[in-house]
Specification:
Strand order of the largest sheet: 13-12-11-10-6-9-8-7-15
Shape: globular
Number of helices: 8
Helix content: 25-40%
Structural class: alpha/beta
Length: about 300
């Protein structure tokens, strides 16, 4: 895929010095572009593939790569959206790159062996401003059938909350399509859940906020921690620290960890963890539909 996220991955890998080829249905007519996977695999020595096409095409693409016998490393853009079981080799990762944000990494170390009392997490951005010079009604985010909606688009929050606080135990959700945006996907969602390490997590995701915001607040017996991932600040009680985070830093660190088997590879989202996040999304939708608590059994 060579939409905005595919191009971003391509640029990051090129800047790391790797030769990158692109498979896209768009007709670019350039030497490093192919119209199908079969041709690219037959003509190039492919050792790493990033699946960055539409969410609803992820499973089809994985099945094709499996059928063609590809056994190199794989990174699948989030969310996985795997609707059936398939046998995969172990070197598969999921593109939850926010795990590599230096603030999230620091918070994870701080919380080691610390009891978490409550977590409030929020992310919101007005959908028409997401992709400049693009009609928001025609992007995949606007279409539930294409895998759009806040649960999929903003599932980074679900992943890093599970990454920080362990697997979920029970949840209940509220929301859906409530605004006058010309979309048929969910535009806002609130989820209340508990995990292995946190009794009370309150999460809100939306396409509505004209002030771009992305933050979480953690309370422990001794600390209040506010992490602002948009302004790259970390407040611990009364002290505030600012981080310099280049636009592609988390993508860069993710690719390096996977390609070079660096120490940080243990932070990359595994296929199993990606499936866990997918499962949580499905249970959130079930809770919304049935208006009840769901337990992770």
């Amino acid at each position: 895929g060579y939409g905005s996220i595919g191009k971003r991955h391509s640029d990051v890998l090129n800047n790391l010095g790797y030769k990158v080829v692109v498979v896209s249905r768009r007709n670019f007519k350039r030497s490093n572009f192919y119209s199908n996977i079969e041709e690219a695999l037959s003509k190039e020595d492919i050792q790493y593939i990033v699946i960055a096409n539409e969410t609803n095409m992820h499973l089809h693409t994985l099945q094709k790569l499996n059928y063609l016998g590809y056994r190199g490393k794989l990174l699948i853009e989030k969310p996985l959206a795997l609707t059936s079981n398939i046998n995969f080799h172990p070197d598969i990762f999921v593109g939850y790159n926010l795990r590599f944000h230096p603030i999230i990494q620091k918070v994870k170390k701080m919380l080691r062996n610390t009891k978490v009392l409550s977590v409030n997490c929020y992310v919101g951005q007005y959908l028409p401003t997401w992709r400049p010079n693009t009609d928001y009604t025609k992007c995949y985010s606007a279409s539930k059938d294409l895998g759009g909606g806040v649960l999929n688009d903003l599932s980074h929050e679900l992943d890093y909350l599970l990454y920080l606080f362990g697997d979920w135990k029970k949840l209940v959700s509220f929301g859906g399509k409530k605004s006058n945006l010309k979309i048929d996907s969910y535009d806002n969602m609130s989820i209340l859940f508990s995990t292995q390490k946190a009794f009370n997590i309150n999460l809100e995701l939306n396409y509505l906020d004209r002030i771009i915001q992305r933050y979480f607040i953690i309370n422990t017996d001794d600390l209040t921690i506010k992490a602002d991932l948009f302004h790259n600040s970390l407040q611990i009680n009364d002290e505030v620290q600012y981080f310099k985070v280049e636009r592609n830093l988390t993508y860069l660190k993710q690719h390096i960890a996977i390609l070079e088997n660096s120490y940080d590879i243990k932070e990359a989202c595994t296929l199993h963890e990606g499936i866990r996040c997918d499962n949580m999304i499905q249970k959130i939708e079930k809770s919304l539909k049935e208006s009840k608590w769901i337990y992770n059994e």
